[in-house]
Amino acid sequence: MSNNKKRKDETAASTGLMQFSMYEKFTDFFVLSLFTIFPFYMTDKLFNVRQDRLHFFEASLLILLFFILATFVCGIDKDKRPPQIFKLSVSDISFLSFTIVCLLSACLSEYGEEAFTGSGGRNSGFWLMLLYFLCFFLVSRFFRSHEIIFTVFAMISGVVSLIAVMNEFFIDPFNLISCIKEEQQKDFITTIGNINMFSGFICVALPVSLALAVLSKDNAFFAFFCFTSSVNFMGLVIANSLSGYFGLVVFMTILFIYCCGNAKRLFKFFVLSTAMLASTKVLRLISYFFKDKYKNLQDVSKFLIFDRRIFTVIGILLFLTIGTYYLQSKFGEKHSPKWVTISVSSLAGLAALALVGTLVYFSVINTETDLGSMAKILRLNDQWGTHRGFAWIRGFRLFKSHGIKNFLVGSGPDTFGQLIKSEYRDEMVKRYNSIFDTAHNEFLNYLVTTGLLGFISYVTLIFAVIIRGIRRCSQTPELLIPILVITAYAAQSIFNLATPIITPYMFLFLGIGENMIRVTNRKNTK
Fold it and tell me: How much is the pLDDT for 7?
C-alpha cells in the first residue's frame, strides 16, 4: 500500500469516528463494557457473582441513561439524533406490553416485595425487567454497529473459554474454583460461575464468532474467528450441559440454512464445523498430557472427546470442505436457487416437528413402552432432564390451577419458587432433598409468573426481531449476528434459567437486532 493511500484510509477512519454522535459513543461504550468487563466483574470471586453482575449491569445502564438524557437536555449533537426515536415497531410494542404485564403482575402478586425485586428467586423481578426494557430501547435507538465491537467480544469470550479448559484439568490460575467447597467444585467453572450459566454464555459468544467468520471478507480475520469459534466450542464441550448442546443444534441449523445461499458461505460453514469438531481432539490431547485427570464429563462430552468414531465424522466434514472449496471456486458468491434454501429449511422444520411429536407421543400417548436409555430423552416424567421434568410438570399444574388472575398475568415476576414451595415443598424435600426456585425453563417460568399475556408478549418480541431481521438480512448481512444469538439463547433457555449473569445479553442482542432493522428501514426510505 502506498503512503498516500494509507494516509487516505487513516483520514477516512478518523473522519468516520468523528461522525459518531455523542449518543452513539455512549451507547457503544455501554455495549463494549458488557462485552469486556461484565464477564469478569466480581467482588468476591464466584461467591457473589450473580449480585455482582446485576449491580454492574444496573449501574452501567443507569449511567448510560444519565449521559443520554444530559446530551438531550444540553442540545449536544441535536442534528445527529436518530429520527423517529419514539416511533414504535412490533418489537417495541411487544416489549412494552411485556413490561406493563410484569408491572401489573407485580402489583397484584401475593408476593409483592419478591415480585418487584426478585429477592425470592434469581433477582429477575419487575425492576430487572424494567432495566431490560430500558437496555433494549436505548440500544435499539442509539447503538452504532461496527465490526470491531463484536470482534472484541469474540476475543474476550475466547479468553473465558480458555480459563474453562484450564479449570477442567484442575488448573485454577485465579483461584476461583479451588476456594469453593470440594463437593461443589464440579458445578462451577471459569469467570461465569455455574456450568449451566457458562453454557448459556457460550450460546451467546459462539454464534457471534461463527457469524463474523461467515461474513468476513478477509482471510486473516476468517482464520481468527475460526480460532475463537473452536475455543468457544471447547468451552461448550467442557460446560457439559444439555441446554448448550440443544442451543448449538438450533443455531448451527439456522447458520447452515443461511450458508446454503451460496457456495462460498457453505465452504466457510464446513471449514468452521471441521475446525470445531477437531478441537475436541485437542481436548483429548490435553487430557493425555494430564494423564486423563479431569472433572466429571457427561456422556455427550465424553463421546466427543474420547470416541475414535469422531475421526470419521471429521473426515466426512473434510471431504465436504474440499468439495465445497471447488464449488465456491467455480460459483463464488453467486446465489443458489431459492428451492435449495426452501428445501433445507423444510427438512429442518420437519425434523423439529418429528422430535417434538416423538416426545409428546412417548410422554402422553404411549407411556408404557420400554425405551431403555432413550427414556431420559424421549419421555417427559419427573426424572427427565436431571429432574427438570418434575419442575416442568408441576409448573404447568400451577399455571392451570391458580385462578384467572394468575392465568392471565401470573403470580409476579420471579416468584415461581414461592408458588411451587406453597404446594410442593414437602414433596421436593422428600424426593430430592432440595427446593426448586425456578422452572429451569425460561418460557415456562414466564408463563407461570407473568401469565399468558406476559408469555405471549415475550414470545412475540423474540419472533418479531428474528422474522423482521431475516427479511432484511440480504440488505444488512450483519443481522446474522443478533439472529443467531437470539435463537441460540432462546433454544438453550428451554432447559435453563434467567439470571443477571447471562440474561442481559439476550435483551442486549434483541436491542442490537432491532437497531439494525431500524437503520435498514431508514436506508430503504431514502
Answer: 46
User: What is the residue range of 52's domain?
Assistant: 21-261+336-367+377-525
* Rounded alpha-carbon distances, angstroms, from residue 305 to 101, 198, 225, 241, 309: 46, 19, 22, 15, 10
Partners of 188 in beta bridges? 194
Grid cell digits, residue 186 = 464440579
Task: Report which DSSP code applies to 193.
Answer: E
Distance CA 343, CA 345 (A): 5
Using the CB atoms, write b or e for 278-307: b if 16+ within 10 Å: bbbbebbebbeeeeeebbebeeebeebbee
Residue 149 lies in a domain: yes
Are the beta carbons of 189 and 167 closer than 8 angstroms?
Answer: yes
Q: Which of 150, 151, 124 is nearest to 504 (CA)?
A: 124
- Low-confidence stretches of the chain (pLDDT < 50) are 1-3, 5-17
**Tens digits of residue pLDDT in 456-467:** 999 999 999 999
pLDDT of residue 373: 62
H/E segment holding residue 84: none
Q: Cα dihedral sign for 313, 319, 325, 328?
A: negative
Enumerate long-range contacts of 304-312, CB under 8 Å, 24 or more apart: 304/237, 304/277, 304/280, 305/237, 305/280, 305/281, 310/277, 310/280, 310/281, 311/281
**φ, ψ for residue 149 (rounded to 5)?**
-65, -45
Whether residue 29 contacts residue 38, with contact meaning beta carbons closer than 8 Å, is answered with no
pLDDT score recorded for residue 6:
46
- How many C-beta atoms lie closer than 10 Å to residue 521's C-beta? 15
Burial, 526: exposed, middle or buried (Cβ in 10 Å; 0-12, 13-18, 19+)? exposed
Residue 195 placed within a domain: yes
466: Cβ contacts below 8 Å, ≥ 6 apart: 483, 486, 487, 513
Per the domain annotation, does 129 fall within a domain? yes
d(CA 380, CA 317): 34
pTM recorded for the entire structure = 0.93
Question: Based on C-alpha coordinates, what's the Rg of the chain?
Answer: 24
Q: CA-CA distance, 382 to 447, in Å (whole number)?
A: 20
Domain total for the chain? 1
Instruction: Locate the DSSP E strands across 403-476.
Output: none
At 498, phi and psi to the nearest 5?
-85, 130
* 289 assigned to some structural domain: no
Nearest to 364 by CA among 375, 380, 382, 386: 380
